[in-house]
Amino acid sequence: MRSRTIRILWLLLALGAVVFGVLSVSSAPITAETLGVIGWVFPVVGFILVVTLLDLFAPRRLDGLRRWFGWGRSRSISYWFVVVFYGVYLSGHWVWHEQPTYGRFLTPIELCFLCCFSWGLLFLLFFDLDTERARAFGRGVAQSKLSGLMVMLTTAVLIFAGAEAYLRIFYITTDAYGFTAMNYHWYKNFYWGHENSLGYRDYEPKGDDGNTPLKTVAVVGDSFAAGHGIDDIDETFPQLLEQKLGSGWDVNLVAQSGWDSDVETAWLNSYSQNVKHNPQVVVLSYYLNDIDYLLTDTANNPDAVFTFPQNPTLGWFVLNFFVPNYIYYNMLQFTSPVKNTNFTDRLIRAHLDDALWGQQEGNLQLLVDWVDAHEAKLVVLLWPQLAAIPQSKPALDRVRQFFEGQGAVIVDMSDWLKDKSTPELILNRFDSHPSRLSNAIAAEALYQAITAQ
User: Fold this and answer.
1) pLDDT top residue among 297 and 106
2) Which residues is 378 bridged to in the sheet?
3) pLDDT band at residue 339 using 50, 70 and 90 as cut-offs
4) Each residue of 57-87: pLDDT tens digit?
5) CA-CA distance, 142 to 123, in Å (whole number)?
6) Which DSSP string corresponds to 35-58?
7) 288 Cβ partners below 8 Å, 6+ apart?
8) Residue 340: which of 386, 294, 298 has the closest Cα?
9) Which end of the chain is least crowded, N or C, by CB within 10 Å?
10) Model confidence over 218-240: pLDDT tens digits?
11) Please, what are the domains in the chain?
């Protein structure tokens, strides 16, 4: 390698491969299972170490490699294809196997792999390459009838790789329905594994210190309460509410993404038994899809308005790589105004269907009865479809009328959010869950409702 900069980088990559290889091997006991994951480290890093040391101290021993490189580069297009294939195959394997994304730290084995991969790429591109050999290679490419095809292939690979990297670094975000790979990895990086001992995305319950009686608020709900799409839980409305109420209060989350009204009372009861006291206030965060459990196995299933890949190969590609996933879901599914409107309409119509509402009302009554039996105050936080606030009114009115008849305090977010624009209220153009601003407004609305009692 004639370039000093390339040579230094090549040596640093070899050093990195050795260091991270040692860390990855030493971080786990050597078993049959771990060998299946890290077994490649020994031969690959050994080869890199030998070749690098020979190039530094005994370059003549690499004359055989130089002859091979000379023979390969004399077949310019074939060599170019080998380099492209090397880059696509190994980087694609890493992305598919490890799924690197924003919010997830790279492991030592990944860093070792990337150092080895980059070392090998520089080796293929620059080993024993001087100005004359580079010109000869260029003449071979210019004279080939396949050079145009290889330019198109390389350009397509670079564009795909750049778009894939961009989405993985800057677009780990949620969608409204939980279909996309971006949504899955947001949950993997910011939701799952960040729960307290009770299993909720929350801090540990404070507990009474024996001096000042602690007032407890239990926030029951689904993804709206759990902070779907909000990276920092301190920016979700339960945490903001606790900050506003002050040190004498403890706001506990009793919510999980995907919960509906049929399970919330049971989990509230389990929470109360685990913390060994009853909350003074129960906040029910209610959204239109809390009735979804009655629609899942019917012809009116809201998710049925969307289509999913049926071809296994296409399904695998869409699942594991962000570019086709983004194109398939975000551009072909969620941008359909008909599909999004149908989704919301089915939830609204379910609330207005007397038979369905009768079943939903029964589960809501269970929650009301639990709150009354435990001498708590019920505050109901009503969420409209944030991208269709006026359209949500008939459904929310029915919910409001039921809870008002039970003596609950109603906080209707339609009234608090009606003067804001839709982009301000939602997370992104594909996710109508509450934004940070909506969470802050909800916390203020709840604060006023609770302190007014």
Assistant:
1) 106
2) 282
3) low
4) 999 999 999 999 999 999 999 999 999 999 9
5) 23
6) HHHHTTHHHHHHHHHHHHHHHHH-
7) 344, 347, 348, 351, 383, 384, 385, 392, 395, 396
8) 386
9) C
10) 999 999 999 999 999 999 999 99
11) 4-170 (no CATH), 200-306+329-451 (3.40.50.1110)
CA-to-CA distance for 79 and 85, rounded, in angstroms? 10
Average pLDDT, integer, range 287-298: 91
**DSSP state for residue 3 in the 8-state scheme:** -
Q: Across the chain, what does the average pLDDT equal?
A: 92
C-alpha–C-alpha distance, residues 154 and 139, integer Å: 18
Phi, psi of 436 (to 5 degrees): -60, -40
Confidence (pLDDT) at 343:
82
Rounded CA gap, 366 and 373, in Å? 10
> What crossing angle do the helices spanning 63-73 and 131-143 adopt, rounded to 10°?
30
In the block, tokens 């608020």 appear at 217
Tokens representing residue 107 in the block: 């492991």
CA 378, CA 376: separation in Å to the nearest integer? 6
Tell me if 442 sits within 8 A of 413, measured CB to CB: yes
Count CA within 13 A, CB hemisphere, residue 92: 12
Tokens of 8: 């230094």
In the block, tokens 């790789």 appear at: 161
CA 342 to chain centre: 26
Pairing of strands 409-412, 426-428: unpaired
Query: Regarding beta strands 281-287 and 249-255, do their DSSP bridges make them parallel or antiparallel, or are they unpaired?
Result: unpaired
Query: What mean pLDDT is predicted for residues 393-406?
Result: 97
**How does strand 426-428 pair with strand 431-434?**
antiparallel
C-beta separation of 281 from 238 below 8 A:
no
**Which residue is listed with tokens 């130089």?**
66
H helices within 144-207, ranges in order?
147-170, 181-190
Q: What are phi and psi of 282, to 5 degrees?
A: -115, 120
Contact 399, 382 (CB under 8 A): yes
Does residue 422 contact residue 451 with C-beta atoms inside 8 Å? no
Inter-residue contact 102 to 170 (CB < 8 Å): yes
